Amino acid sequence: MPRTYTSLTLEDAKRMLSAAEAKAASLGIAYNIAVVDAGGHLVAFARQDGALIGSIDLAIDKAVTARIFDKATSDLASLAQSGKPLFGIQESNAGKVVIFGGGIPVMFDGSIVGAVGASAGTIEQDIAVAKAALAALGDPTQPSRRSCSSQEGTERSAQ
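Above: the chain's sequence. Below: its structure in token form.
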């Protein structure tokens, strides 16, 4: 029997983007926001009018980094300093690893089901926008529709 895994759905990602955009608006900053699935692949992306072009890839790469290392990018930042256990990690994965705040994995029932990345403001603002996206999913212990995919790429819905 192929293994299955739970992942964020497009519906989840849209809710997350909406909440992140609202937080960005409250900060008065145009943001780039990315949501990736359990495999680290882009599900949804928003670039608010006027958002920095240079932050497009940063938002996406923050989300991917949070997913592939199952750790907030702000946590990776401290672990990647000279003399620390992950020094140089930002050079891995074709140099697309981002080691500053704004990327956060999304947990559901004890498993990481995707991640969000936000970029345009200070590190603290990026983290706040990403956290607003997470909050849009509500209580992660409550049942929610998320897709389950097998290794063979078939999809079905799971509660």
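The domain at 8-139 is CATH 3.30.450.150 (Beta-Lactamase).
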